[in-house]
Design a protein that fits this description.
Radius of gyration: 16 Å
Largest sheet: 7 strands, mixed
Number of helices: 7
Strand order of the largest sheet: 5-4-1-6-8-7-9
Order of helices and strands: EEEHEEHEHEEHHEHH
Strand content: 15-25%
């Protein structure tokens, strides 16, 4: 199996704080998730969208799939994406993260080339960023066992596994203001983001 090649966009959240389905988020009249798919296709030849609304993607040339283990949060989506992926390491991003940084993705990919770990995750102080990250198909069994024991925290599972961590100082060389980890959870955050990009025009 090839080592790299697949990217997964998780689009199955409940979007309760946003007030509408974040899969429909638009940035300047274009769906954010379509922007993500287009950007990721520059360096990945397989894009998978994990969604509970496959009807939003009729006619898509990407792989569209849904949770296999339903109702367990983001880990369900990671599990589904890994199960469908055709590469060993799979890049994951959420559908509400607007700032894809291709240089950083390439950096993480290079970091993984000589390693045997189950994920490549970025640190934020003592915390970790579970998305804008790589996960290995070797994690599938770990996730299944973890979810079946009624646990669902991505971070808690990662702490139990062999993971390559990128330190915050290094990651800030690619994104000094940390915007490559920004996710839009509320209408206020969306408005702030739109105002920021429109003020740059």
């Amino acid at each position: 199996m090839r080592k790299f090649g697949t990217a997964v966009i998780l689009a199955g959240g409940k979007s309760t704080r946003m007030g509408f389905d974040k899969q429909l988020l638009k940035i300047n009249e274009r769906r954010l998730i379509d922007n993500l798919r287009k950007k990721l296709s520059k360096i990945f030849d397989e894009i998978i969208v994990v969604t509970n609304k496959s009807e939003y993607y009729l006619g898509s040339t990407d792989k569209i799939t849904k949770d296999i283990i339903v109702g367990k949060g983001p880990l369900s989506g990671i599990h589904a994406g890994l199960s469908k992926a055709t590469s060993q390491y799979v890049y994951f991003v959420a559908c509400d993260m607007p700032n894809i940084n291709l240089d950083y993705i390439e950096y993480m990919r290079n970091e993984l080339k000589g390693l045997k770990v189950k994920a490549c995750i970025t640190k934020y102080g003592e915390w970790i960023e579970p998305f804008n990250a790589f996960y290995s198909k070797d994690m599938i069994m770990d996730i299944e066992e973890y979810l079946m024991s009624n646990k669902r925290s991505v971070n808690s599972l990662l702490y139990k596994l062999p993971v390559h961590y990128v330190e915050e100082e290094k990651a800030r060389q690619f994104s000094s203001n940390w915007d490559m980890f920004l996710n839009l959870n509320t209408k206020e955050e969306l408005d702030d983001f739109l105002n920021a990009i429109n003020s740059q025009d």
